[in-house]
Specification:
single chain; 215 residues; mainly alpha; globular
Length: 215
């Protein structure tokens, strides 16, 4: 190892350790949802952990893609994901009826979909979540593997980190949607594109169209 390479290696190792810490802290936040509620626990995790990422890495997590030209792709991806979610919901819950009640409980946990708080906080939380997952965690994976394995691994870790919430429906949503956002991030090298797709999907299935009535 040359002296010139040492700082680069140390920087990569620091980012890998940071990504591991983020995953563990996020899982802890998911567990705390049993005490504070899913909205508060994961919202605080998104805001606090994304602030930590930005303090450590700044704009390095954003990517180098042509962000301004990619936002329509993010909108389109989010809409396709939302339509796919709506189309698959019926067949999946017919095959696994317990998921319908689980989704109803999730909507109840998220609260009033039309409230001002939801409209204001949802974008803040989504941006923070993407900085953590498709920014720092995905970045650590992408340094070690190609974009497709990194997207698969990122989706698996993302889903597992939400498992402490105790909702199979949430884990499935994180697995499917997480893969789409990770793949978009990997293909475009643009975190903003993934953020836009995430925002469109969340607003579609949480605010505009409720898949199942609240429990």
């Amino acid at each position: 190892m040359t002296p010139a390479a040492t700082p680069v290696v140390r920087s990569a190792a620091r980012r890998d350790l940071t990504a591991l810490a983020l995953v563990l802290l996020w899982a802890l936040g998911a567990w705390e949802s049993h005490v504070y509620g899913i909205w508060a626990a994961l919202g605080v995790s998104a805001v606090v952990l994304s602030a930590m990422v930005l303090a450590l890495d700044g704009r390095a997590v954003v990517g180098n893609g042509p962000h301004a030209r990619l936002w329509p792709l993010g909108v389109g991806a989010g809409l396709v994901m939302a339509l796919g979610t709506m189309a698959l919901f019926g067949p999946v819950t017919t095959a696994f009826p317990a998921l319908f009640g689980d989704v109803s409980r999730l909507y109840e946990a998220f609260g009033d979909r039309g409230s001002v708080a939801t409209m204001v906080l949802l974008p803040v939380i989504v941006i923070g979540e993407e900085i953590v997952w498709r920014g720092a965690v995905q970045g650590a994976l992408a340094r070690r593997m190609r974009w497709l394995p990194a997207a698969v691994a990122g989706a698996l870790v993302y889903a597992l980190a939400h498992a402490p919430v105790g909702s199979p429906a949430l884990v499935l949503a994180c697995l499917g949607a997480g893969f789409c956002w990770s793949a978009l991030r990997g293909l475009t090298d643009s975190l903003p594109a993934a953020i836009v797709a995430h925002l469109v999907w969340d607003f579609a299935v949480l605010v505009v169209y409720q898949l199942a009535p609240s429990a």
